Structures are given as structure tokens and as C-alpha cells.
Amino acid sequence: MKPTLSTNPSPFTILLVDDRDENLLVLEELLENGNRQFIKATSGNEALKYALKNDQIGLIMLDVQMPEMDGFEVAQFLKANPKTRDIAIIFVTAINKEEQYVLKGFEEGAVDYLSKPLDSNVTRAKVNVFEQLWRSQQALKKSATDLATINKQLEKFVYMVAHDLKSPLTGLITLLHLVENMNESRPIEQAELANYLSYLKEAGYHQSTMISNILEYSRQSIDQQASEWVDVAQLLSQTTKLLFPPKHIQVNVAEPMPVIYTKKIKLQQVFQNLLSNAIKYNNKALGAIEIGYTDQENFFEFYVRDNGPGMTIDQQAKLFTLFRPVGHSQHESSTGVGLNTLKMLVEEQGGALRVNTSPGEGCTVFFSWRK
């Protein structure tokens, strides 16, 4: 889909400065084009006040000959202040055109010069050029802001990918150590070894698929990222296997789970991180994790509930701080992504994420996902 161009660009604001009201009215009438906004000042002090208060001013038409504070002094103050030094200034003057006056104007920060009586065509043409320059500058600023936003999103993406890949790798390595230790303590039967190898092979394939999906996702823009039919029960089964939950923790998925047309990798990221946290922080001899959902009008609201330690009010306050671990003990070290990034993923779907928890009572995370 092609982007639609705005037919109503933001108004171009011009500050007109002259000690004579009739001159201000003539300038405004000369420059009015239906998409310009004018601020009028009759003294240097008034001009400085307007310039400092309004950060949308794109051009100042500044009369040189004014009582108390002339145009050169006004320009000096404007250029000395970081808030106003980048505003373009055109000096308007009836002073003779001797070179010394022109040079003084440029030294004080003028970018152009107009002599009275004004030539209407020349004045309009010059102001049109400065308006185009101002709009180009605004577009560049927006591009810089958008680029900074994209860079932050990329940073978050990298952290999240690292976290998503680390969890199943840790489980896989743990299982390998378990097989190694078992072999040292007693001979492993062929059937038992085959079972473990099959489990490891399946986990490896899932990991490889996950990496491929992430690489494909990273190459595509949001508009290009394809949606597909996702069997949530199957997705949860695969995700749980990748996390290698210890035997004392049971993961129960309510049946039946829905099938959704969505971006699979995003839904997988949300479930994997919620499950990973629920497994990692569970401190019960028999851990229980329950996954279910409720069918709402335009959304499915999923929940991941555990019987773990729950969280204090202070810990809950850190939940949505990016890359800051919540921590369930003073000595715990973590590089978790927190719920902030998950919240962003959910909100991309138009949904919301909320948490219900208290110390010793476990934790339930709810998130809604568009159908």
C-alpha cells in the first residue's frame, strides 16, 4: 500500500517584527497564502518573548530600525540562546544599501536582507524559499527521530532474541549434563539413551527452526511479516519442550486451545518468556503452571498462571522496566527482558497485558491477542 501524502501540512509560522503596526499589516497581507501563521511584535523585547515561548517559529522578518532595541541587538540575543539560534532571520530595513550595513546584518546572524520599499515578488519568493528549507529541516528531524526509534527497537529485538535463544539452550545443555552424569553412575540402557537422544534431536530441530524464523523476521519490515494459521496448543507443546522444565514442574494446557491467524514468532516470544519466567522462579517442591484462555469479542485473552513465590509491591514496580531483572532473591543475577518488551508485542496487536500477583500466592499474567 502506498503511503498517502498529507494534503494539509502543518502551518509555517513567521514572526513579524516592526515598531509600526501598518508595516506589520502590509507584511502579513503580502505573505499570507492560507497555510501560514503570523505572530506580530512591535518591539525587540516583545519579539524575544515570542521567540522564546514558541518553538514552531520558522522565520523572523526583523526590522532593523526600532527604538530601544534595534534589529541587530535582537538578532544578537536570538543567536546567543540555544532555543532560538537556529531560527532563520531576514532583516528588513530602510537603511541605505552600503556594504557595511549588509555585512553587520550577516555578522549578527541574518541569513538574508530585504530593503524598503519592499518588492512584493522578491519578498514572496525569498519567504517561499525559507519555508521550503524549514519544511525540509522538519522532515530531517522527523527522520532522525524515526531512526532513533528504530535503533531502540533493534536494541530491544537483539536483547529479546538473545534471551529467547538462551533459555532452550540452557535446558538442552542441562539435559546433556544429566545424561553424562547418569552414564558415570551406571550404564545407560540402549532404549533409554535412544529416548534421550531423540529428545535432544527434537529440541535441536526446534532451536534451528526458531533461529531461522528470527532471521527471517529480522529481515522484514512490520508490513512484510507474514501471518499464518497458528495452532496455539501445538505452539505451546513445542515451546514447553524447548524450555526443558524440570520433572517437579508440571505444565498444564487447557483444552481445546484456539487456532489463530497471526504472526507466529511474536506469539511464541510472549508465551516462551512467560513460561521461562514461571519455570525459572518457581520455588515449590511441586511446581504447577497452567495455561488457558477466555474467548472475548475481538480477542483471545490468554493467561499463564503459576504457584511460585509471587511478587511484592516493590518487585511489581519493576515488572515493566526494560531489561531490568525483577529478582526473587538479593543474590540472583539475571539478564531477563522483563515484561516491558512483551507488553509492546501485545500492544502491537491492539491488546493489553496485566499481572495479578501477591507474595506467596503465585502469579498470573493475562494478555489479550487479536483474533
Automatic annotation (TrEMBL):
Ranges where the Response regulatory domain occurs: 13-131
Q: Which GO terms describe its molecular function?
A: phosphorelay sensor kinase activity
Species for this entry? Spirosoma fluviale
This protein's name: histidine kinase
Q: Indicate yes or no for the key word Transcription regulation.
A: no
Catalytic activity field: ATP + protein L-histidine = ADP + protein N-phospho-L-histidine
- According to the UniProt record, what class of enzyme is this? transferase
Q: What is its EC number?
A: 2.7.13.3
User: Is this entry keyworded Phosphoprotein?
Assistant: yes
Where 4-aspartylphosphate occurs along the chain?
A: D63
Q: Which terms are listed as keywords in the entry?
A: Kinase, Phosphoprotein, Transferase
Every copy of the Histidine kinase domain together lies at 160-371
**InterPro entries under this entry?**
CheY-like_superfamily, HATPase_C_sf, HATPase_dom, His_kinase_dom, HisK_dim/P_dom, HisK_dim/P_sf, Sig_transdc_resp-reg_receiver
